From TrEMBL:
InterPro entries associated with the record: FAD-binding_MO, FAD/NAD-bd_sf, Flavin_mOase-like
Full protein name: Uncharacterized protein
Swiss-Prot/TrEMBL cofactor(s): FAD
GO molecular function: flavin adenine dinucleotide binding; N,N-dimethylaniline monooxygenase activity; NADP binding
Keyword Oxidoreductase carried by entry: yes
Keyword field: FAD, Flavoprotein, Monooxygenase, NADP, Oxidoreductase
SUPFAM superfamilies given in the database record: FAD/NAD(P)-binding domain
Amino acid sequence: MSVPEVLDVIVIGAGISGINAAYRVQEGLPDASYAVLETRARVGGTWDFFKYPGLRSDSDLSTFGFTWRPWLSSRQIAPGDSIRDYVETCAQEFGIDKHIRFGHKLVAADWSDNKWTLTVQVDGKQKYFQSKFMILSTGYYDYDTPLQTDIPGIKNFKGTVIHPQFWPSNVDVKGKKVVIIGSGATTITLLPNLVNEGADVTVLQRSPSYILARPAVDRFMWFLSIFLPMHIAAFFVRIKFLVIPWLFYKACQRYPNVIKQLIHKRTSAALPPSIPVDPHFMPRYNPWEQRICVSPDGDFFQALHSGNAHIATGTIETVSSSSITYHPALPSTAPGDHKAANAHAPGFADAHLPSEKTSHLQADIIITATGLKFQLAGGAHISVNGIHRTVPESYMWKGLLLSDIPNCGFIIGYTNSSWTLGSDANARHVVRLLRYMRRKGLEVVVPQITSEEVKKMKPKDVVNLNSTYFERARGDMPKVGDLKPWQPRVSFWVDMWQSWVGGWEGLQFL
């Protein structure tokens, strides 16, 4: 074993969460030595990794950006390369880039003798680091493996099959018939961009999503910038985007039927007459039980007006060498046997049973936009005093630390609002914890849940969404329950309050 490099703090990942965590460390602990280990060759994480056409945020950049270096453009729904450049610029301006070790993949993290020993792969060789504290900022999906989805007969297809996670640089869609399988944010992004590249595109979805058209450029920001310095204008716009989306989310939870009707009304007005809302835009779930997709300036609906974009809802029967055979979904308002059959299903008014008839879609290219494979901690092997520890067997302390894993911060963002809001609340909390330990002369902190707490506690979900890839990942997530401090995260406001004044109950210090 080579001589390890010794540091006070090591941050894993140089995406938006990792760069933010690094800033919080150097801001709150200016004399601490730290490094950021990044597998890839550039900063940006998701925004450097994905290459599919039209990659963009579906959150406003005022809250998705950093508080310590605000997003100053009035364009709130921004393309992926602009976000990556923004993250890189922020890292350079604050000297964080000097602490990043690119091409360093964490393989294993072993805790013993009150320190972490990290095994890192660099150019096919192993390198070692030691640190007192480790901050995991690796996001939540597997970079190497997409979510595996069973599409009957897909191996028969003679054309090109693409997963957006591995978009080829040489694909030419002009004049091609493209079928996108899926209905999430990636699909909503791909459709208008592929149409603009000259493709004839059909979205084939099993279940629809809610889609809201939003201006890409925020007029409030543009107006304020006329009279105020950009940094002050950005502050007020950030407040706006903190409050309004949060109120909308709460309204979705409290008045789901009202919000559902409002979305249906807006969707109907945006669609061409040839495309009905039912069944193509009537999801089986209430708003914000899954993420609501955003269409900047209504580009998704504009594409449907072009004549080169189509939408089909149904269940795939099989894929042949050049086409997809599927059973179209019946409208939820269809009379007769369909409605009777649905009467036995919860929420039957919004369920869409497949027709016995079949339809066919010709395809030169099939894009499987069916979600991401869930993975926490970057897939690294974690052990504590020689005992292997996994994320699913651990309870999550205030959405921040994992039970029985010492000196390890777990940075993850929100799924129901801007990711960075959650990751920043966590990063602030970690640094406050480290400052507390330093003041008290403490070296080790480990969350410990008692057997009595486990017996009393009713399990809850870490993520309050029922998207397919979250449902399939439930067994890979840490545990939470209905007792403090093991409850799931509630909101940005609560998490920030905890990061400022929250207590340390449930933690053991040494």
